[in-house]
């Protein structure tokens, strides 16, 4: 976590760039350290991982982040990117307008979004 370029966090932090939902569950409803996650782009499997593969478990992340930020009930912590990210492909397989992204977490459900063209006037955001 230390020494990580700020762009890794910034890339996922712009308004509309990290869709979640439509509902959240708490750690007492699932084991946060054993969730199977799959990401599909246009139906092609790009990522297949489990939260038990995280370098730092949820409790360590909360402890570390609490040294710099006040964490409140309901806060969401992004844990990072599993292998299979398009930028690391040879050649890079970056998302384009019209791509459909589906993320599934076993036992929780899925979310699906379509990449849209960025508006020319972003002042409305």
Automatic annotation (TrEMBL):
What Pfam families does the database record attribute to this sequence? FAA_hydrolase (PF01557)
Q: Which residues form the Fumarylacetoacetase-like C-terminal domain?
A: 8-115
UniProt KW keywords: Metal-binding
| GO molecular function annotation | catalytic activity; metal ion binding
Q: Does the keyword Phosphoprotein apply?
A: no
> Mind telling me which InterPro entries this protein's record contains?
Fumarylacetoacetase-like_C, Fumarylacetoacetase_C_sf
Xref: SUPFAM superfamilies:
FAH (SSF56529)
Q: Spell out the PANTHER family in the cross-references.
A: ACYLPYRUVASE, FUMARYLACETOACETATE HYDROLASE FAMILY PROTEIN (AFU_ORTHOLOGUE AFUA_1G02370)-RELATED
Q: What is this protein called?
A: Fumarylacetoacetase-like C-terminal domain-containing protein
